[in-house]
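PROTEIN FOLDING TASK:
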Amino acid sequence: MRVLVVDDEKRFCDGLRSGLEAEGFAVDVAYDGTDGLWRARENPYDAIVLDIMLPGLNGYRVCAALRAEGNWTPILMLTAKEGEWDEVEGLDTGADDYLTKPFSYAVLLARLRALLRREPRERPPALTAGDLRLDPAAKEVARGGVRVELTARELALLEYLLRRRGETVSKREILAHVWDDDFEGDPNIVEVYVGHLRNKLDRPFGRASIETVRGFGYRLAGDGG
């Protein structure tokens, strides 16, 4: 899943980005509210981690602007402030959850996962298509009860395809959600990783779950192939 982190503390952003990328997220970073708002408007994020105290526009204003425009990307608001009225203001401007610094990274990750399950509709903790099963939190994949080991990038690609199962998704959409703005390589990397998934999840089990839709992209069968 693709996440935008908006915070003016560079060291904090670098650490959070590294941690989330290790979990299989694609992460973009903005260091002020103006750039954060622009990125949120221009890119299809699955969630936004938004600090309140920001240069340019504060987090309240960024959140309020997105909601006024009909952008309902889940927002986890961060702040070093304490007090119930700060939390009230954050939630009232449209944030989905609120976390006070300093916080446990494990708690942030769990809350982020909860937001991804809940928006735009309630999503189950485990993603399934027929006998293909992915537990995003545990990073466990199984086909017919047989566990399959995947790399972090393969897990991220499978998670995105499972969340869009039955739908055709373009190579551009996959790059936007599974990779990030810093990726400057060959877009055909998507084909390479789709091949990895087929070699690990389909061919050994006599399945064909990931279909190439010529001229459009890929589709993961809703029944798991």
Summary: The helical segments are 10-22, 33-42, 59-68, 84-92, 105-118, 152-163, 171-178, 189-202. The chain has a mean pLDDT of 87. The longest helix spans residues 105-118. The first strand starts at residue 2 and ends at 6.
